[in-house]
Amino acid sequence: MTGRRLHETETRPLTVVLIEDDDGEAKAVERAFRKSRILNRIVRAVDGVEGLALLRGETEHKIEQPLVLLVDINMPRMNGHEFLTALRADKNLKDLIAFTLTTSMDAHDIEQAYDRNVAGYLVKERAGEDFIDLVSTLESFWTVVEFPVLKQKEPRYVG
């Protein structure tokens, strides 16, 4: 399939890290990227514990920056708020761009997410049929926003 990559630099395309416990929701997000002909790599973690291990390089998956995170709030073991708190406390991960992608429209959840410096609070119900609007929103974001420059000359793996 021919398509395009979002925010591709000369040598490093953007990687999407999806932290989502629901298999159906995760497949729907991946399908929306394919339907929109977006070819960026999507790596999934099923909860915050696995997400942190992935980002810290403690799994077999190596993830090169730049990357953006899509984080569910309601997950087992470590929920999205706990994950974001740990992410922001980690000196190697604190500057990563994270969006929430959740069913919760609770004002307290929204406030907590923004207190943890999310780039946006995306509600699944409003993300459009089959998450197509989500992909469109992220594509617009990536088109106009400059990502931080890596501090090292060599490609750096998260972790």
Automatic annotation (TrEMBL):
Tell me which SUPFAM superfamilies the record gives.
CheY-like
What Pfam families would the database entry show?
Answer: Response_reg
Q: Which UniProt keywords are given for this protein, alphabetically ordered? A: Phosphoprotein
SMART domains hit by this protein = REC
Protein's UniProt keywords contain Amino-acid biosynthesis: no
Tell me the residues on which 4-aspartylphosphate occurs. Answer: D72
- Gene3D superfamilies (alphabetical): 3.40.50.2300
**Ranges of residues in domain Response regulatory:** 15-139
Q: Which InterPro entries match?
A: CheY-like_superfamily, Sig_transdc_resp-reg_receiver, TCS_response_regulator
Q: Name one GO biological process term.
A: phosphorelay signal transduction system
Q: Does the keyword Electron transport apply?
A: no
Instruction: State the source organism's domain of life.
Output: Bacteria
Under PROSITE patterns, the record lists:
RESPONSE_REGULATORY
Q: Which PANTHER family match?
A: RESPONSE REGULATOR RCP1, RESPONSE REGULATOR RCP1-RELATED
Q: What's this protein's name? A: Response regulator
